[in-house]
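Table 4 source record.
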Amino acid sequence: MNIILFHSTYGLRPAVHAAADRLRAAGHEVRVPDLFDGKTFETVEEGMAFKEELGSEELLKRAVTAAAPHSDQGLVYAGFSLGGSLAQNLAIADEKARGLLLLHGTSDIADDVSVDELPVQLHVADPDPFETHDWLNAWYLRMQRIGADVEVHHYAGAGHLYTDPELADYDAEAAERTWQVALGFLETL
C-alpha cells in the first residue's frame, strides 16, 4: 500500500519517522513530507503559532504538493492530529484514495462533497480536548452522510498524542493497540 503520512503541529519529529518505519516493516511504501521546513516544536502552542503564521492555505498547498506526484497510485492518506486533518481533506478530494487513517485528529467536512465508500479509521483519546465527544459524533455522522465507511477507536485515559513516546501524552498500551488495529485496517485495503 502507498501511504502518505502527515505530521502533527509538533512538526516532523522522531515519532513520525518511527511510525513510518513500522508501516514500512509491514510492507507498505510510506512518504513523510515535512510541511514545516524542518521546524519542530516542544509545545502545542508553539506549533499552532507557527501554523497560524504559515497560514492554513499554505499548509494545505504544501500537503497537496507532497501528495500530488503519488496520487495516481491510489494513496492511503494518514496523519497525526493536524496531519490527520490535512489527510482527511486530501482523501475526500482524491477520487483514487484507497483509504484514510486518522491518528488523533479530524477536520470539518464541506456540505458539497461525497466519496464512494472510502474506508476510514480514526484512533482518538477518550476524552480528547481537541476532539470532543460532541464534535466526534457530528463528524462521524457527516462522514457517513458523504459516503465514507467509518470506524472509530477510542482509548480511555490516553492523552491527545498518545502514540508519541517523547510527549507527556504517551500511553504505551494504547499506542500498541492503535498500531495493531491500524495495521489490520491497512491489510484490508
